[in-house]
Design goal:
The complex is a heterodimer of chains A (232) and B (254).
Chain A: H1 3-6, H2 23-28, H3 30-64, H4 66-81, H5 84-95, H6 99-123, H7 127-135, H8 140-171, H9 182-191, H10 195-223, H11 228-231
Helix pairs in contact in A: 3-4, 3-6, 3-8, 3-9, 4-6, 5-6, 6-8, 7-8, 8-10, 9-10
Chain B: H1 2-12, H2 23-55, H3 59-71, H4 74-83, H5 99-123, H6 127-135, H7 140-173, H8 183-191, H9 195-222, H10 243-246
Helix pairs in contact in B: 1-9, 2-5, 2-7, 3-5, 4-5, 5-7, 6-7, 7-9, 8-9
Classes of the chains: A mainly alpha (232), B mainly alpha (254).
Organism (chain B): Nocardioides cavernae
Membrane topology (chain B): Multi-pass membrane protein
Protein name (chain B): Osmoprotectant transport system permease protein
Chain lengths: 232, 254
């Protein structure tokens, strides 16, 4: 019999009760939950941003050299095929048991989705728009930054949303190397048969995914005011 | 690096491959889990999605199920199923400990890509082709079997391919929650700080994943009625994200 179980008023997360939903757990372990959530958001955001930073030049390269496109797509698809629980261990010899391992692994997954959506987005820019811009005297750089990227934004943002939502979910697997954000709580919940911890952390993961997705939708609306009237 | 030496020693020791919890047995177990789950998801998902796609109904649901599926961590669902009183960690025949929980989770995560892709495959058959079939007096069933399904098959198979990748990955994660399969080698290695063993397990899992993906890609090529293989440019496949597959509802069928 544990001390918790012997208490006069067993709380809903004591061994005896072990409720799935337990507000007392959330208030008592607030700091732990906040820390895990902060780590989770941090790992997710850094991974997606890193993925985007690598995906951008790769997409431009693939577009400039069509012969490279198939190779780049094949390699990124290959990486995507490797399960996260296998990818993290394969990175450990290089980066150790650190958050870097998780971030690099997740960035590689995000990269796959982002390269494709960047290519798809740039391809969706109508040729006549590109020609008009060239006719107006836009150079290659200005054409890309001022015409092509803004027009590609809806498709790119769609990819960014997919990448972000899946990264939030995959971050939990990082608990293998002890950097899994809310995944650490899930793992602990399984090991100690702690239902409130497990359920709260799982729920927070899903909520986090939807919140980040909503933020990206909002950002997209602000960045592409011209699509608002059309979509309705 | 020393871990690579440890990894090689683990992989080259024949004793690690044989026996009840050897690599070969666990590999067989995980392949069995993967194929069973994929088959169950196909039996459930394909008829519904293809039928909805044929009718042009339920597009919102068929497309958003993938978005919802992505947001749910496989690890969390597996953990919930294992800790719950049912299905729990009970043995299930050749599927090993927590076999039922793992099978349920795998099937659930195989469904979204199958449903979304099959639905989109049916909807993306060119409207003029559909009109022509109707004009020739084909019945609904004839149009479905002779026109829409053959034309949509490559995309349907690409959904199965994506589901296969997803199921294999999830089956690996099952070991994090005391489930069956090859992931056990990885988690056991890390749990006991025997990193060579963990990395050896990861290598086997990754290699099999690539082989499965390659076989699926070949299958996809084989069912392409236009026989030009997988074109690289401008073609939508399961992993690419376009505006059309994301938020546009399918056009209503007249």
């Amino acid at each position: 019999m544990t001390i918790l179980g012997a208490a006069a008023e067993p709380s809903c997360y004591s061994r005896l009760v072990n409720d799935w939903i337990c507000p007392a757990y959330v208030t008592d372990r607030q700091q732990e939950i906040v820390d895990a959530t902060v780590q989770h958001v941090g790992i997710t955001v850094v991974s997606v941003v890193l993925g985007l930073l690598i995906a951008f030049p790769l997409a431009l390269l693939a577009r400039r050299l069509p012969r490279l496109e198939a190779t780049i797509l094949a390699i990124t698809t290959g990486i995507y095929t490797v399960p996260s629980l296998a990818l993290f261990p394969l990175l450990v010899p290089f980066t150790g048991l650190s958050a870097t391992t998780v971030v690099i692994g997740l960035a590689l997954y995000a990269l796959t989705i982002l390269v494709r959506s960047l290519l798809e987005g740039l391809r969706s820019v109508p040729d006549d728009v590109r020609e008009s811009a060239t006719g107006l005297g836009y150079g290659r750089g200005a054409l890309l930054m001022k015409i092509e990227l803004p027009l590609a934004l809806p498709v790119v943002m769609a990819g960014l949303r997919v990448a972000t939502v899946s990264t939030v979910a995959l971050t939990t697997v990082g608990s293998l190397v002890a950097y899994g954000g809310l995944g650490n709580l899930i793992k602990d919940g399984v090991l100690t048969n702690f239902r409130a911890e497990l359920f709260t952390a799982s729920l927070l993961c899903v909520v986090l995914a939807f919140v980040l997705d909503a933020l990206l939708v909002l950002a997209q609306r602000l960045l592409t005011p011209w699509t608002r009237g059309v979509r309705a | 690096m020393r871990v690579f030496g440890d990894m090689w020693r683990y992989l080259s020791d024949g004793a690690n491959w044989t026996g009840g919890d050897g690599i070969a047995a666990l590999l067989g177990q995980q392949l069995l889990l993967t194929l069973t789950a994929l088959l169950m998801a196909m039996v459930v998902g394909l008829p519904i999605a293809l039928w909805l796609g044929h009718l042009g109904r339920g597009g919102f649901l068929a497309i958003n199920i993938s978005n919802v599926g992505r947001a749910i961590p496989t690890f969390a669902l597996l953990a919930l199923l294992v800790v719950a009183p049912w299905p729990g960690t009970d043995q299930l025949g050749p599927y090993g400990r927590a076999g039922l929980a793992t099978l349920i989770a795998l099937t659930l995560f195989a469904l979204p890509p199958i449903i979304t892709n099959s639905y989109v495959a049916m909807r993306e058959v060119a409207p003029e082709v559909r009109e022509a079939a109707r004009g020739m007096g084909m019945t609904g069933a004839q149009r479905f079997w002779q026109v829409e399904l053959p034309l949509g098959l490559p995309l349907v198979v690409s959904g199965l391919r994506l589901a296969l990748v997803q199921v294999w990955a999830t089956a690996t994660i099952a070991a994090l929650v005391a489930g069956p399969g090859l992931g056990q080698i990885i988690t056991d290695g890390f749990f006991r700080s025997n990193y060579g063993k963990g990395i050896a397990g990861a290598l086997v899992v990754a290699a099999v994943a690539l082989v499965l993906e390659l076989l699926a890609a070949l299958a996809q090529r084989a069912v392409d009625p236009t026989r030009r293989g997988t074109p690289t440019g401008g073609h939508t496949d399961a992993l690419s994200v376009t505006g059309a597959t994301l938020d546009e509802p399918a056009e209503p069928v007249g």
